[in-house]
Amino acid sequence: MTKDIKTDVLIIGSGPAGYTAAIYAARANLKPHIVSGLEPGGQLTITTDVENYPGYENVIQGPWLMQQMKEQAIKVGTEFHNDIVADVNFDKKPFFASTDGGLIFQAKTIIITTGAQARWLNIESENKYKGFGISACATCDGFFFKDQEIAVIGGGNSAVEEALFLTKFASKVTLIHRRDQLRAEKILQERLFNNPKIQVLWNKKVLSFEGNENPLALNKIKLEDTINKSHTELKISGAFIAIGHDPATSLFKNKIKMDKDNYIITKPDSTETSIKGVFAAGDVKDKIFRQAVTAAGMGCMAALEAEKYIAELDN
Ligand code: NAP
Questions:
Q1: Contact (Cβ atoms closer than 8 angstroms) between residue 24 and residue 117
Q2: Which tens digits make up the pLDDT trace of 147-206?
Q3: Catalytic positions, written as ranges
Q4: Atom 21 of ligand 1, nearest CA residue
Q5: Could you tell me if 64 and 17 are in contact, meaning their C-beta atoms sit under 8 angstroms apart?
Q6: What's the CA-to-centroid distance between 169 and ligand 1, angstroms?
Q7: Given ligand 1 and candidates 157, 283, 286, which is best to mutate, with the most ligand atoms within 8 Å of its CB?
Q8: Is pLDDT of 315 > 80?
Q9: Count of alpha carbons within 13 angstroms of residue 206, beta-carbon side
């Protein structure tokens, strides 16, 4: 069964950007609707300790923080749908969006906050130690590895930046790359090679992650040399996977302007996309900062810009 919904603001995606947009839009009396997406709450629901979200003296848990944001958004007047947007049409005004669950939206504005997902190696042992030594976010989790030996996997800007950042905490950082050349910018490579705390292992592929069972804790990586196929082990207590992120933008392909990596392009100092009335906030448009707090800030901007756009439409 389908259900038609007319709204001023439709928010697609329920991470910090989406919920913040919802809170601001609801408080502007725009009665926003938010459609959660496949992973309600976004990337923070798969992290554990959060120490850098302002306002909390003590460590909080990612899933808890997202639940709080959701409850706050609902309390101030957001309608929440645990559903997945399957199609959008930005050619029509009001904009059209339909969901797997049969909702048909006509929306004066749409705020896209579908986020991005860290790429993982997708090996079985990686899943086992995620949150128990394996992370995809050095800014979030680096602090937990003070004076320990850790590894970063990848060879792009993210991997090199994460390795450099992690030297603030770790006693030693080993960058593991599958080729003999980095993809990262030269200036970052120079900093990496000049840092005495960093060693690079070239031509190495991760075979498995291993560690203690009780309590679950990573303590080594088994590696294979991609040239001579020999196997080695590296003792570490943390591993950061930094092999890229993919923005969740397939739904918007050919409907809105994106860059070569499929991130949505917005105007400088704005969340306005190539379509007037459609805004984008958070990791779906940001490949540099990727923080909950920056995503939340952009969600706020998007709601304020949507409010202004609607006021001009209605005049
Ligand atoms: P990226 O440039 O795509 O690099 C990914 C790296 O991971 C590559 O070195 C790749 O190896 C490796 N990799 C990919 N899949 C792998 C796998 N399955 N196993 C092992 N290694 C794997 O990703 P990124 O570093 O996240 O950067 C993404 C975009 O954001 C880029 O455009 C980057 O310039 C930008 N960025 C910019 C900044 C900045 O300006 N400060 C910071 C971060 C990111 P190969 O080299 O062999 O392909």
A1: no
A2: 999 999 999 988 998 999 999 999 999 999 999 999 999 999 999 999 999 999 999 999
A3: 137, 140-141
A4: 154
A5: no
A6: 23
A7: 157
A8: no
A9: 27
E strand spans, the chain: 3-12, 33-35, 49-50, 60-61, 79-81, 85-89, 95-99, 103-112, 116-118, 134-135, 149-153, 172-176, 198-201, 204-212, 217-225, 231-235, 238-241, 245-247, 278-280
**Residue 47 confidence class, pLDDT cut points 50, 70, 90:** low
Phi, psi of 294 (to 5 degrees): -75, -35
Q: Give the residue whose CA is nearest to atom 45 of ligand 1.
A: 155
Instruction: Give me the residue label for tokens 């943390």.
Output: 238
In this prediction, residues 275-301 reach a mean pLDDT of 96
Give the Å distance between the CA of 155 and the centre of ligand 1.
Answer: 6
Ligand 1 atom nearest the C-alpha of 179 is 47
